[in-house]
Amino acid sequence: MPPLKKTTRQEIPRKAVYRLSLYLRCLQRLKANGIRTVSSEALAKAAGVKSTQLRKDLTYFGQFGTRGLGYDVEQLSKMIADLLGTNSLQPVILVGVGNLGSALLSYRGFEQEGFEILAAFDADPAKARTRNVKQPIYGMDKLPEFIREHSVKMAILTVPTPAAQEVANTLVENGITGILNFAPIVLHVPEDVTVNSVNLAIELENLSYFIQH
Asked: Where does residue 50 fall: left (phi above 0), alpha (psi -120 to 50 degrees), or beta otherwise?
């Protein structure tokens, strides 16, 4: 097969990056089942997109694949994982150890996807919690030193809404450039910081519209 062309994250739109994550999970399932090649039609169907969209997304890696045989599953998996930065465990911290934060700390699927939550931080680290988690829980005063010592760039934010912007400011000031935000608020951050917000109420409203129409 021809060599794949290298690209950069800046060239790829956010929606395309999201679809690449979907393709990677489909490819991982194929690998687990011992499948070595896959057609664009089959991969697109598994990911829930049109084959024309998939082929367009994969042009970010240059022209590759073998006509009549499709894509090499191992090769394409590695290229996407390299681009997304998940070929090795990425360190992550979590801030806000309430019910949602505790549940996320207990979830073991992150490491399978290339992410390791190293520690959590909370305004009341000694508070009794219903879930036992393996990660240490520190006070907010320990956050700057921990981020620096472990070269952390990503954080999960599960604090109450009134505290979200202030905590986000602290994270950014200490070198965090990627935030997964569960607080139902729009965070204001510098242009070089990426925020992905998860608002469950909005998602349910979206579903509510479609089940009525």
From this structure: beta
